[in-house]
């Protein structure tokens, strides 16, 4: 039986200041690698799924290094293409209290941005796959990336593979000549599972809702994209940069499910928390009923806020313990 | 006049990840040394008591290094035996928010675990002592350690020395062929001062209480161990790994005394906080009335939560300032 | 048009322990440079004002290094005198929760403390200046410093330059033979803008007020120092060393203005927050109405609590964003 | 065609002091993982060979972490067994000039030391293997390890697989009841490729040679172990802890081949240099004539002296460049 | 009298691995900023010259940060243009012994590469200038950069300003459609002072010389570029990556002058050593006779090898001390 | 039998830059504590002598911290007086190759400099002492320090205790109104063992010798100071800051003994190497014949060059191994 998750996207080098130093104070940067779809891949693999990550990285020391975490987590890397000149970068200054974190992207002209259609044989790549995952970052990177993403989605659709997406709106990308709504509508219309968000829906599809509940948004999305079977939304209430409240909803076309709300304070690293939700949700939907899947994903992503880096280094056991209500953070010895 | 405190137990090397890194992310470990009874010794010495620590460490660079903090704090080390092959270790991953801290012990077959009775002349060691302290960790380590601990306690009892104990239940120890209840009952029955805890009492003695107040537990303990003159319990409410509420009770056979409850957030290092309470309580009981002794111990251990390492590096003046109600944490300059 | 701010005072090397380590645990110190009047200078310059800092530093590598941040921020350093033997130092141990931070000054006999009147031609220094700023730390350092400060203030007064002051009471200074009240009364009586504080007013001028509101204090100060046009007070409520509430008032001789109260938790570095308020207030008073000036200064200094070092590294845009009510600390990417 | 190298041995956590600090000065340890046979596996894999590493590690965070470098380097880990209680450790203090480096082993009772025969199906493990590699460290660890090592060697012999060995004499191991000569003679007599050494040969086999040349030793070994087809010896001249001269010889039963002698100063990390020679030799013998294989192995291990950690992170291209005579260490940009 | 040095070129962020770690081992990068012409500017300014650096940097935190060192060293930055999207980067892995250092450039599409002619009014920029300096890196970056460089050189020539150049051949640049020889010939033909090199002369001009002495090269250059008044060559003999021999020659059209040869071992940081020679030579030629100028430049650049970063942080006094023969490196206290 | 060594002098906080960073590059300082006479005390104690260190430190966290290393090494600290305001400091920038190390003293007005005669009862302090040691740094610090040093020396002389001295000429000290020759002549004339040096002898006593051998100097010293029984000189040949040759001579009034010459490269930390010689010589003279004592002291101080900090952390066994000729720096494992 085919049980492989395949994700497709860009992986970046992240250079972050120590502690809460500002960029202007940084004499060292800490280095990790991550990217939305790679983060999803690793999350799902850490819970035991069979996962493949498809990407393009340059044939340099940094291209190689970007794959280390995937290999350690047993994510397949055989379909990663070594081409082009540079790995995309992003710089991260970690805020605190009323000073927000700051990201400076330096990813233009990356190997991934210059991806070519002929480098991938999607039918072959997806041959053992039962879930294909993409995010809104990929079509935002470049025309080429958008086209390859569409080819992947179309192939998956043709092969009857379930398709999941994270809208992931990034206003600073989408720099090429494109109407985001068109391409995103096309891509989402072929997808079955969606991680949405009010702001992204407004930016991408002009959907505006008034109720504080997410139900209206779920209904509009379902109407617009009839193939969607499950839609999730994470609710982040930002008290300040160090303190968030975190919960999520899952909609299955009929009912709206609610998760516990977690109070997260002080946050260690919020980058990648959405991806950790997505990775855990994909795992959850294959192993649990919907409510449990939602609870699993919310708990997993809650814990991610306490973990340095883009990647959720957490075990299934740890997630289950929190999901079952133990918020004590008790020392285990 | 005899006024020396003698404590007996194992001292370990602690290897902890930086900040909140997980074990799998650690490229460096920070090194300190500590152990419950050594921590008590240093705490008491820092407040001005005359203290001796008795232990076994290997004749290696690490055996020597483990004693540095004791020497700096003027704790006597003349009765520490240099024997055996290895210093016990433990690894510490510091959690945050809903992710708990994690300890991996690597202390089997340590020099201390292979302690021999003939290495200690307890009558000589205790000759200027008026307080002997042991904890439930020592008999849990090995049969040999339990036996030597009992010899020490029996000698102290015979010499009329006050005996104090911290139950310190550690489920992962007690790996040898033993009924913990038997040996602990024997040891506690000879003791006069006890730092107890609801969970430990249940595990060791099967005592189960229903009230949220600690009174019932105090009464059961007093009944079971008539020699006990003072029993203390610390109350830790774990909001999450970063946020605890902390208070304590002291029972003198008649009345139950309550301390202030401190709200501790964000915690810097919670390891050794119980020991810091014990060390301060032993100091307090010799220098104050009971209520003040309790307040001193609670305040001292509250501050420990803000100090890196196993050891409470705090002055008597700092404790008194907090004990008298100044929780402002005002900068002194 | 003259639009230059000139500040006069001492700049120090600050040696701080890593994280929350105690002095006794420190194997490294982090090094930055700062001082109340230099901090004000840099803050104002970062918002776009033309600023000059006047001081004395030794002709050593550390004297030079102390000026780097000023030069980077385009603060003029042409009137800094290179003389004397040593740069003043201070050591900082950063507290947490119920353990306060601790400063050990080591600034006696510094180059600045041995300042000489003949090193400065104040008429020349102040020729393009429209605002001269001093603080209560300078006359506290030494008789010589107090005298030169007075000369500067007198020259500014004679030249019709607006004079601002921060009372900055430091009980551990004022070590020479002096009556602080006399010299401070003389200096403040020539000043037009004041950053005051209840404790400092009591120590310096014996002013004691009963109301929880600052109005009474403002009125007493206005009466005593009729030249004062604007008086500000910052209100710091210390929940503990990691958690403060922060607001401010501004009085223009008639009405008392209130700022937003910010909840700041967890604090990254509270040293220099008062200076960041002062620098922003001087900017604000030249560019805004009073209420906005107060709001700008309060928001700027709120953010300073999240920034390592003595200096407020924040842009006008970041301050305005918070001042306009966005406390979310949202990540910008 | 079978072209896989399989190596079998223990992998350890290495904890090393920063820079040249002594153990007594260490407040942090740097962490890497390594072990003779794992190092050989990674070296060979980095040059492009298909490699499998067989071992036992505990089912803990450290057991998992010890495999990261293998996975990153594409060494197969499917035959690694997760059992037992602890990962072996060693501590490293790096000397300089006339102060030698110091290793403290803490590997007794490790998961590997308690290996069990039934955990491995050697016929299956070796089914695609054409080279099996072991070292003298494995039989030195414990009786159990020696037995499993012998089973592996016997199976390989039976399956007609070439067997290589590194004598790797470690006097501090061999702590169980054993005559090292017996077991080593048995194991080496079945091997075809040997990395020997004068001191090891004397300790293990009582072979003592007088000439400064290695020819006599080669001849004695060939006579004693007729199956040996290739014997290599590395020649390390220790000027002091920071400065070595490094060369090697290879003997094919008839002639003795000599490598270049490299002057290595200052050494960055000498641990694992022998293993880097072995790994490169195994690669070389499959891809080159003998002289080139020797030159390749000597150059590869020369470069290892400049690389931190147990593992030789060097590309084939870099080795070839040095092997062809470019010792300039010219910057590439 | 006009006495200002103006240099024009790109400044980059440099990200280097700690110690001798390889890129694949790096979890942190150390950050400094530098670039050939900025390094020359700072060197000359540190010796007391009046200097201006002209460049383009993006209007980001990193654009600002790249100027800090210039400002600290009093290099004028008023003619630096804030435009474009990214600061160029380079990554540095520091070799040792027989492993060379490795640079990975990531500077394509930088703000400087997309420089525009209209951003600079060269007549105004050069109005107080008596020495204009450029290097062969600038025309190699992009067509736009080459054009602006030529405009600057032509303007300087027209204004009668002395022009200096460092050939600085970088094979990995020159990626646009260009014949390097043409543009370099044009630029050098207008220059008066040249830092050349045998390899660069061969690459750029096809000049090939046979003698080990540099005289022939000097004569060919003088013939080809009759405006050249002074030509210098540095002689680097690379024993290995840690050990160089370093000397230089200066030719004034008639005689060839020789410097001392320095034995530099172990090298701390060799990047920027050529620039430190150039900066010191420009200072020397204005303040000394030719032989002393050569000696000053050679000594200054010798010391640079012991200083971390791209920039030569050395005082005139320190250079003179070495130049006068004190190679002892005696501690000063 | 009296067998205690007592040393008297100042202990300082040392703040050194990381690696080879210049002061202007330092964002952190590493902290250790040391001082000539404390270093001697610890060296001798580490070899097994009974030692007491006498000094004055302030009653601050830094005064306490300065004693930690003494306590760890079992040097007696009971006669250290806690008085005054500040601990002396010194800053250290570590040179390399042709750039020398740089020390900036900041020790004026320290607690020790303001020592008072009445704080010490020398007869009591020296009651179990058989060797009193002082160095030329102490009388150089202040008039008060010189007077107390003289009192100590006079008391020791009166009590028949052997007196040793290290001339330790520091030109930057001796800032008070004094003729160094007078006081040094007085002090040395009462001493029995001397560590001298050609430069110090010239500065202090005007002794100038012409021969490259030290014999003439020994003879002049013996003539001038007839009480001297043993005089040692260390010979440091500074190839450059990273590379020294190191040997020593000992003169017993009749013959001159020579040590091995060690080639030390690259030096880790040269501060305190003279003190390590002195401490080992005092041990050696009590336990060996003169030649061996010299060899022991030279070997011990050779090793000190490889150890970070002021203090020689080396065991007697390690010294003996080198002293017996093993310069290989072989790894011990």
What does this structure look like?
The structure is a homohexamer of 333-residue chains. With 333 residues, the first copy, chain A, is α/β, with parallel strands linked by helices. Chain A has a single domain (5-323), classed as Ribokinase (UDP-N-acetylmuramoyl-L-alanine:D-glutamate ligase, 3-Layer(aba) Sandwich). In chain A, 34% of the residues lie in helices and 24% in strands. Chain A has twelve helices and 15 strands. The first copy, chain A, has helices at residues 36-46, 61-65, 68-72, 122-125, 137-141, 143-158, 180-189, 198-205, 215-224, 273-287, 290-304, 316-323; strands at residues 4-8, 12-17, 28-34, 50-54, 56-57, 81-82, 89-93, 102-106, 129-135, 162-166, 193-196, 230-240, 243-251, 256-258, 262-264. In chain A, the strands form three sheets. In chain A, strands 1, 4, 9, 10, 11, 12, 13, 14 and 15 form a nine-stranded mixed β-sheet that branches. In chain A, helix 7 links the parallel strand 10 (162-166) and strand 11 (193-196). In chain A, helix 1 (36-46) crosses helix 10 (273-287) and helix 11 (290-304) packs across helix 12. The radius of gyration of chain A is 19 Å and the shape is globular. The termini of chain A are far apart. The relative contact order of chain A is 0.13. The model of chain A has no long low-confidence stretch (mean pLDDT 96). Strand 3 of chain A pairs antiparallel with strand 3 (28-34) of chain E. Chains A, B, C, D, E, F: This is Sugar kinase. Chains A, B, C, D, E, F: It holds the Pfam family PfkB.
């Amino acid at each position: 039986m085919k049980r492989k998750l395949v994700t497709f996207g860009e992986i970046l080098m992240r250079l972050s200041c120590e502690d809460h130093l500002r960029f202007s104070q940084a004499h060292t940067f800490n280095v990790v690698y991550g990217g939305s779809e790679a983060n999803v891949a690793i999350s799902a693999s850490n819970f035991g799924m069979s996962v493949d990550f498809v990407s393009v990285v340059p044939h340099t020391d940094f291209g190689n290094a970007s794959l280390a975490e995937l290999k350690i987590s047993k994510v397949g890397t055989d379909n990663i293409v070594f081409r082009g000149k540079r790995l995309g970068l992003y710089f991260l200054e970690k805020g605190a209290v009323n000073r927000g974190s700051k990201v400076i992207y330096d990813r233009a002209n990356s190997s991934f941005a210059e991806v070519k259609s002929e480098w991938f044989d999607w039918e072959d790549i997806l041959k053992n796959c039962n879930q294909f995952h993409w995010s809104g970052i990929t079509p935002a990177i470049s025309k080429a990336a958008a086209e390859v993403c569409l080819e992947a989605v179309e192939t998956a659709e043709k092969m009857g593979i379930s398709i999941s997406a994270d809208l992931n709106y990034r206003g600073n990308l989408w720099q090429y000549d494109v109407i985001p709504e068109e391409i995103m509508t096309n891509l989402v219309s072929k997808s079955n599972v969606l991680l949405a968000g009010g702001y992204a829906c407004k930016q991408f599809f002009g959907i505006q809702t008034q109720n504080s509940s997410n139900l209206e948004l779920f209904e509009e999305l379902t109407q617009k994209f009839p193939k969607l079977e499950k839609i999730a939304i994470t609710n982040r209430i930002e008290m300040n940069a160090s303190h968030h409240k975190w919960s999520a909803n899952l909609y299955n076309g009929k009912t709206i499910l609610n998760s516990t709300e977690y109070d997260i304070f002080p946050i260690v690293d919020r980058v990648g928390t959405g991806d950790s939700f997505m990775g855990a949700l994909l795992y959850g939907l294959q192993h649990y009923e919907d409510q449990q899947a939602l609870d699993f994903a919310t708990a997993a992503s809650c814990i991610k806020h306490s973990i340095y880096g883009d990647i959720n280094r957490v075990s299934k056991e740890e997630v289950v313990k929190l999901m079952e209500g133990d918020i004590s953070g008790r020392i285990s010895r």
